Amino acid sequence: MKLFFRLLVIISVIELLSYSCANPISPTGGPKDTIPPTLLESSPMDQQLNFSGQSITLAFDEIINTDKLKQNLIITPTTEVEYKTLPKKYRVTLQFEQPFNDSTTYTFNFFDGITDITEKNPVENLIIAFSTGNYIDSLKLSGQVTDLLTGDLQEKITVGLYAISDTLDFEINKPTYFSATNEEGLFFLQNIKASKYRLFAFGDENRNLTFDAATEAYAVYPDTLNMAEISGDTIDLQTIKIDASELNFISARPSGKYFEIRYTKPLTDYSYQNEDSIFLPSKLVDENKTLRFYDNKSFQDSLYTIINVIDSLGNSKIDTLFIKYRESSRKLEDYTVSLEPKNGTSITSDTRYTIKFNKPSNIIKDDFLNVVYDTLVSFDYLPKDITFSKQRLSFNFSLQIDQQQYTDSLNQLINAIVIDTTNIDSAKLSIKSRLQKIDPASFKFSILPNSFLSAELDSSQLIEASYKFLKPTNFGTIRLNLTTDQSHFIVQLMSKTSIIAEQKNCQACVFNSLNPGSYWVRILLDSNKNGKWDVGNYRKNIPAEPVIHFKEETTLRANFDNTLDYSF
User: Which region, left, alpha or beta, applies to residue 122 given φ > 0 means left and ψ of -120 to 50 means alpha?
Assistant: First the structure.
């Protein structure tokens, strides 16, 4: 029995030692390994001709790790042939299930797919190109990918060349040649066959080599590329991330007290026509994917209507249907009315005020607004330049009120109250005393109740807000002097996260009442001169209109006036 236990212990020790030898681990102590593996030999060799094998073998000067080889390896031209990865210490073999195509140049770009086993240092610039024919395709193309709206370098963007065909669809077809951008946004395509191609870049977040139009950033190059003529050229691309999926109709039916028409993606605009030109209150809901019509009792039974909707790419879809409402006990949505700027905001005489509704609405009181000095005293500042939104979900206006005007009006009220010192009127004295305590640096705003009526006959409630006049010494001004031969463009003053202000077609642009801080300038070119910036339409091979980024940061201090000169 003792002999049995001794044998068992000896066997266990031998197995443990064997396991340790078969599974190398990182050595402890000593300097960190920063040297990547070096390729010693490969079969086939780089640039080899007339290769006829079905396997690729690489040998290195140290033990390697290939856990991420398949997800990093890029083979061009694209192949659907399956292969197995067979690693063995210093070597790795890729065994393909079918032969390679005849008279074709293949490029294997391993990127970071092969590393050493200790510190995971990737083999640098590991690319093997070979041909199954008697020559190597040598055409190449390079460039850089940036974000169109931010100018930021775009890493891990797939850039592909597609063989031209009548059925080419980036959402279905995989690129013939492709590469991924590095951390500097650079891409390099090589060993390309002389032919004509389409160039397209996309995020490929799911790494399936097909474009997901709904979620992935993309860039389309509008021209056909004849590689025999442009080999070695540099082409830069700018990506934009927008839902570029196809616009489709889903359903049209009554929903509670409404009639709703659903689509597969968000809409940016819509219009409708009916035979009697009947106005139908409506708005977009469900993240702008659903068009809702309200029942304003303008017709009975059903109404034949033509609906025209437009998505972010400018694609339009026309549908004909019958709008019909049904009786419903569903509770109506609460009516909300909001005012911008928000309570407590600082304003100038140029400030425009916006009243927003959650349902299409109308003004039913022309005198809906009061500028309030005191609970007993107000002054009639009339809204000017009232503009309703297309679907009557908001309107904006100006007051053209400034601190000096407000102070003068307040003083006129105070001076109009004359106190007879021989026979003091306590009521007048109280009112005058209250007016003298009012701070002329701020004022109160009242939107009177029952001023607006919704499509469902809701009446608005009282809205109150207080505003402060901007102190000019607390803010600054940025002036732009632009030299350009462009006639239609949009100038945007940017912070790091948002658009602060914009103006159109100005060569001497002035941005007033700016908070101290850092600013940048962006120009959106309106190339088709339609008064807006267009995102293009990749389905029609139309890229987004150009964007120019001036990377110079301007730091604005309080009570400063900065002048910037740019050319484009």
Answer: beta
Cβ(113)–Cβ(70) below 8 Å? yes
pTM, whole model, 2 decimals? 0.79
Residues 363 and 436 in one domain: yes
Amino acid occupying residue 257: K
CA distance readout (Å), 34 to 65, 110, 116, 119, 182: 15, 19, 10, 7, 20
Q: What is the DSSP letter of 67?
A: T
Helix (H, G, I), strand (E, B) or coil at 407: helix
Alpha helices in 169-285 (DSSP H): 227-230
CA 114 to chain centre: 35
Containing 436, the helix (H) or strand (E) segment is helix 426-436
Which among 509, 523, 524, 521 has a CA at the least distance from the CA of 551?
521
Cα within 13 Å of Cα(438), Cβ side: 28
Q: What total number of domains does the chain contain?
A: 5
* Residue where the block lists tokens 């609405």: 361
Strands (E), 256-341: 258-263, 269-274, 282-285, 290-293, 302-310, 316-324, 337-340
Same-domain pairing of 76 and 144: no
Exposed e or buried b per residue across 125-164, where buried means at least 16 C-beta atoms within 10 angstroms of its C-beta: ebebbbbbeeebbebbbbbbbbbbbeeebbeebbbbbbbe
Which CATH number covers residue 553? 2.60.40.1120
User: What pLDDT sits at residue 275?
Assistant: 85
Contacts with 94 (C-beta within 8 Å, 6 or more apart), sequence order:
55, 56, 57, 83, 84, 85, 86
- Residue 350: strand, helix, or coil: coil
Q: Which residues contact 137 (CB under 8 A, 6 or more apart)?
A: 105, 131, 191, 192, 193, 194
Query: Which alpha helices (H) appear in 159-289, and where do they start and end?
Result: 227-230
End residue of a domain, out of 188, 215, 239: 239
Q: Dihedrals φ, ψ of 411, to 5°?
A: -65, -35
With beta carbons less than 8 A apart as the criterion, state whether 336 and 454 touch.
Answer: no
Last residue of a domain, one of 131, 161, 189: 131
Q: What is the pLDDT of residues 221-268, one digit of tens each?
A: 999 999 999 999 999 999 999 999 999 999 999 999 999 999 999 999
What pLDDT, on the 0 to 100 scale, is given for residue 30?
61
Q: Which residue has the tokens 């879809």?
A: 317
- Local mean pLDDT, 10-residue blocks, the chain (568 residues): 42 44 51 88 96 97 95 89 95 97 94 92 92 95 97 96 93 93 95 96 92 96 96 97 95 96 97 93 97 94 96 93 94 94 90 96 91 72 90 93 86 86 80 84 90 96 92 92 97 95 97 94 97 93 95 95 97
DSSP symbols for 138-167:
-EEEEEEEEETTT--B--S-EEEEEE--TT
Backbone angles phi, psi at 498, to 5 degrees: -155, 170
CA distances from 329 to 326, 333, 416 (A): 10, 12, 58
